[in-house]
Amino acid sequence: NKSLVWFRRDLRAFDQAALHHALISSNAVHCCFIFDRDILDGLPAADRRVAFIHACLQELDAELRALGGQLIVRHARAADAVPQLAAELGVDAVFVNGDYEPQAIARDAAVAAALAQAGIAFESHKDQVIFEKHEVLTLAGQTFSVFTPYKNAWLKRMAAEPMCVAPWPVEPHARRLAPPMPGSALPSLKQIGFGPSAGVLPGIPAGMSGAATLFEDFLGRMPDYRHARDYPAVKGPSYLSLHLRFGTVSVRHLVRTVNELAARGAGGEGAPVWLSELIWREFYAMILFHHPRVVDHAFKPAYDAIRWEAGPKAEADFAAWCEGRTGYPLVDAAMAQLNQSGYMHNRLRMVTACFLVKDLGIDWRWGERYFALHLNDYDLASNNGGWQWAASTGCDAQPYFRIFNPVTQSEKFDAAGRFIRRYLPRLDALAEREIHAPWTVPPMLLEHKKIRLGMDYPEPIVAHDEARKRTLERYAVVKAAA
Ligand code: FAD
C-alpha cells in the first residue's frame, strides 16, 4: 500500500506525526507541499513569508532526499491538487497534521470528501500542539475561557502523560519513502509569482537548521527570559514564533527540553515562564477551534456594541499608525520594526495594539488585519487572541479600563531609548529623559538638536489623557457586561 503525506504547517523531516504514521503503515510514502493559490493569490509579490516557506522547502526536500525520498511541490488550489496528486500516484491514504483554523478545517473537509469519492482515506494527526481541541477541559467537561486554570489543567495533564511530548520518529522508517521521480524540481519563487525577498528576514535563519540554531542560542538565555523578555532593545525572547508557525521546529521537542532542564534544576526562573507562553499559543488555538466566531467578532458578545471611530479622521489616524507617524516614539519605532523586518517584540505588540484601540479609538479588527499582512509569524489564533486581549474584547483580556500610557511604557521598557534610537535614528540627539515624549522638550532645545516637530518628526496625533477619557466613555456600553 502507498500513501501521500501532505505537508502544511509542519515543514520538517524529524519528529513529525503525519510522516511517522504514514511510514509505519505504508510500503511507499510520497511527500508533497502545495503552494495553495487560494492563499497565495491574495498576497503581495514581495511577501516575506512565501520566501521563508520556499527556503524551508528547499531544506526539507534536501533532507527527504538524503533519507531516500523527495518533496513533490505544486502550485495550485490545494483542494484540487491534493486529490489529483493522490489519484496520479495511486495512493491508498493521504496523511496530514491537523490544522485548527476555520478555513483550513473547511479545506480539509473538502479534500477528505473528494478523496473519499475516489476510495482514498484521509488521516489527520495531532502535531502542531501538545494538547488539542477537547484534551484540556474543566472538571465539568467544558472548555476553558480563562488562561490560568487552563494552564494548570494543561500542566497537570502533561505530568500525568509524559508520553504526550515523546517524538514521532521518522529516520528509522525512512526506507519506506518512495524514491525521487525524475524531473520534479522545486519551482522557483518567480515561477509561483513571487519576487525574491531574500535578506528581508534579518537574523532569522530558515528551515529546520535555522530553528535549531535559534533554539540553541535561546537555551543559554532561557534563565533570564522572565526579566529580559519585556525589554525590546534586549535579545530576550526566542524568536521561534515563525518556526512554530511553519513547523520547522517540533513543539514536543521544545517542551521536552524545558522539562529536562527543569528536572535538572537548570532553566532558572525563565523556563516555566517560557513554557507558559507556549501554553498561551495552545490556549488561543483551542479558543479559535471552539469559538470560530472570534475571527470577526468580540469573544464577549456585549463588546460588539462598541462604536469605533470611523470616517476620514479615523482613516488618517490609522494610516499614521501603520506608517509609524503617530508622534509617540515607542509606537512609531515598533511599527518601523514591523514594517522593516516583519517581526515585532511582544511588549510592543501590546503597546501598539492598545494605542490603536484605546488612544485612537479604532476597531481592533483594522489592526489585526494589518498585523496579519505584515507579521512573518502571523497566526490567526494568536493574532486574534492578542488583539482581543489588547482591545479587552477577548476571553481572558485585560480589563477595558486598563489603558497603557505609551509614554510611561516607553520610560519603563526602553528607558534609555535604545530601541527607539535603533528604529528612529532622527531622534538620536534627544536625551534619555526627552526621547519618550519629544513634544515636551522646549522648542529652543529641540531646535538646537536640529529636530523640528511636525517636520523631522510628527507632533503627537492624539493627546493621551483626552483619548483615555473618550475610551472610558466608549467602553461604557459594556460596563454592565464587564
Ligand atoms: P517567545 O517570547 O520566545 O515565546 C515563545 C513562543 O510562545 C512564541 O514563539 C509563540 O509561539 C508563543 N507565544 C508567546 N507569547 C504568546 C502569546 N501572547 N500568545 C500566543 N502565543 C505566544 N504570536 C504569533 O505567533 N503570531 C501572531 O500573529 C501574533 N500576533 C500577536 C498580536 C498581538 C496584538 C499580540 C499582543 C501578540 C501576538 N502574538 C502573536 C504573540 C507574541 O507577541 C509572539 O508570539 C511573540 O512576540 C513571538 O516572539 P518569540 O517567538 O520571540 O516569543
TrEMBL record:
Cofactor(s) annotated in UniProt: (6R)-5,10-methylene-5,6,7,8-tetrahydrofolate; FAD
Enzyme class, spelled out: lyase
Positions of FAD binding: 225, 274, 277-284, 377-379
Domain Photolyase/cryptochrome alpha/beta: residue ranges: 1-130
Cofactor binding note from Swiss-Prot or TrEMBL: Binds 1 FAD per subunit.
Gene3D superfamilies tied to this protein: 1.25.40.80, DNA Cyclobutane Dipyrimidine Photolyase, subunit A, domain 3, HUPs
An annotated GO BP: photoreactive repair
Enzyme Commission numbers on file: 4.1.99.3
Marked site (Electron transfer via tryptophanyl radical) residue numbers: 308, 364, 387
GO molecular function, one term: FAD binding
Catalytic activity: cyclobutadipyrimidine (in DNA) = 2 pyrimidine residues (in DNA)
Keywords for the protein's UniProt record, in alphabetical order: Chromophore, FAD, Flavoprotein, Lyase
Similarity comment: Belongs to the DNA photolyase family.
Record's protein name: Deoxyribodipyrimidine photo-lyase
